[in-house]
Amino acid sequence: MSSSREKKRSIRCAAREIVKGIPNSQEDGVLDLPSVSTTPAYECFAERISESSAIAKFEEDAQVGDILIVKVKRCDIVGAYVKPLCFATRIKRDLEWLDLQLLTPLSALSRRISVGQYLEARISSVNPVKVELLEAPPLSSNELPDYFRIGRELPRHTDLRTYIEDSKMMRNTYLAETLRLPTTSSYTFLKLDGVEMDRAEPASAIRKRQNEMLADEYVVRGVEHMRSGNRESAIVVLNQALEINPHCVEALVARGAAYSTNGHYVLAEADFDQALSLMPTHSNARNYMVETLVKYASLLEVQGDLENAKSKFEKVLRIKEDRRARTALAKLDRKRRSPSVEILENEQDKAKSKSVKRDVEEERKKRRRTLEAERERKRESHDNRKKLREMEEFIKALREKK
């Protein structure tokens, strides 16, 4: 532990020495490396930034007191219209490519300005951004910030890696020796107090995560097939998901639901069992399992396989309480105790069913009679209106003859 602390302390000391200006070249003892501050702004390397988002970012980052380098575009009695070029303090930002002009008053200035001059302006307020010109003399093109001038000279479509490789920024042959670190060290200067990173390539973990994400995409496609009614295609897609990730609970549940809808209760039960073994609290797996077992047990009961039907109903109750399973189990117990009771119950059910059918038929007849009476009433009303209209026309014709 102490050796690790001493190593970190030596790293920090070496870093401080470099910051203080220890040369890295033997030529005249001068530090001949480009500073990070001279690296062009991010906008010089990015190609997919929209102008609207860049303007919104500028307005978001601007703070009162920031100094901007601006170029005078035109002057009138209202003031000077200036175009922001870049930030001169705090942050690096290339603004020249934006279609952005700011109005600044001239009343506070003690000198004249002309179009095309490079001036310094201070942000006086934000939301919206307003600036005021400083009394400093105009700048020449060589006096603009280094990062802005270098960014102007970059060829189009230059990426950051190419810029760094072409510059001298990485060509410090004495850096590893000064910091007392081997070139293969996994230390990072972002956190000097951090621990050494694991050198083992995390390929298996990355591959596992990628397989999980790909399987989830197949599950989504399978569910879409199920919603459109194409359950066979859904099962094919869900099989692919389980080939990629055999432990995908969502794929097991979705395929079990498709099997259950198609009437393949044994396959559906197997999928739900596997899903619940992987995630016992999965609500959809529990609900679909209950529905599948109730349907399967009812089918077994009709087929006369009472023992398996009873075991399925009992399995339902082990998952969660269900009134249908409880009632079916009681019915199976009564069957086992006395077959005559079942016959009597069946006869009672048939009699009740006939009574219900009679009531339904009577209700239908009553509705038909009511509808017929209503239609007859409407017909009479229509005939009466027609006769009245004919009578009025007849009287009108008689009056016209007179």
Automatic annotation (TrEMBL):
From which residue to which does any coiled coil extend? Answer: none
Please note every region of biased composition (Basic and acidic residues): 347-389
Q: Which PROSITE patterns match?
A: TPR
Give a yes or no for keyword Glycosyltransferase in this entry: no
Q: Which UniProt keywords apply?
A: TPR repeat
Residue windows of the TPR repeats: 215-248, 249-282
Q: What is this protein called?
A: TPR_REGION domain-containing protein
- Species of provenance: Haemonchus placei
